[in-house]
Every structure is written in C-alpha cells, then in structure tokens.
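Morning. Coffee machine broken again, so started the prediction first thing and wrote up yesterday's gels while waiting. Chain of 162 residues, entered below exactly as on the submission form.
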Amino acid sequence: MAWINCNHFYSRASFGREEEPVNVQKLQNREEVRGRRYCPGSYLSKLKLKRYANSTIKTYVSCFETFINHYSDREIKDLNEEDIRLYLQKLIRENFSHSYINQAINAIKFYYEVVLEMPNRFYSSKHREQSANFNLLVVGFIFGKRKKLRFKTIPSRPILRK
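Came back before lunch.
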C-alpha cells in the first residue's frame, strides 16, 4: 500500500487548512441600508458561540435576513408558524432549489429554537410518521411503474440460518 501526497494537485482546496474565524462584529456593524432589516445581534452571537462554519454563518444570515425582510412590516417576534409556512410555500412557488429551501428552514429554525429557545415546533413526531408513510408511498409508486421484475426487487444479502 502506498500513500500519495496530493497537495500539489489540489492547491486551492481548503482541506487541512484552518478556516479563518468569522468576524461577527463586521456583520453587526454593517452599514445599514434604509428599509432593510438585519439579523438580531443575539442570532449572530449564538452562531459564533455554537462555532458554526463560516459558510454556514453566511448562509444562515443571508436566508434569515431574506425571511425577516419578506415580513418587513411586522416584528420578528410576532411571526408565527403559519407565516413561516406561507414564506416557504412562496419559495416553492418561485422554484427555489430544494437545498436553498432547506437552508432557509434551518436558518429560521435556528432563530426560534436556538436563539429564542422555543421548543421544536416544526418537526413533530407525527410529522416524521407522515413523512415515513409518504416515503413508502413514493417508493411503492416508483417500483409499481417498473415493467421488468429486476427493477422491482431490492438486492439484499441472504439470511443464513443455523
């Protein structure tokens, strides 16, 4: 067995290098644009305290600020689950990617569940059961559409009994 040092092949890759810390003060002291709302300081400090990666902090801040600016006429604390659902449905209607919608969900959840320390209200055990049942229906639909038997079977290891 041989070990190959690939550092020369991947000179721009970030693995093995320390990530520079995010300057939360810089985010807090941004020049304000009239009519635009920014993340609360508590949101930024919790992200830093939890030691989130730079890219995650930038993504969460961007997604959360987009969310609170969507409801610019209302206070953040006055928004409820229905408002969040309506916002997410708007993102879906506007054909945002699944990954962006997931990032938006996580950024919003971070505020309510970590910053405000509210209980987990978005994914209850009932929701997980419904998701599991939905996934089974999707799998059944996919396998039901296949014409050849080999596509309807799932390969598995044989069970050997003693």
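The helical segments are 24-28, 41-49, 54-70, 81-93, 98-115, 125-145, 149-152. Going to sketch it on the whiteboard this afternoon.
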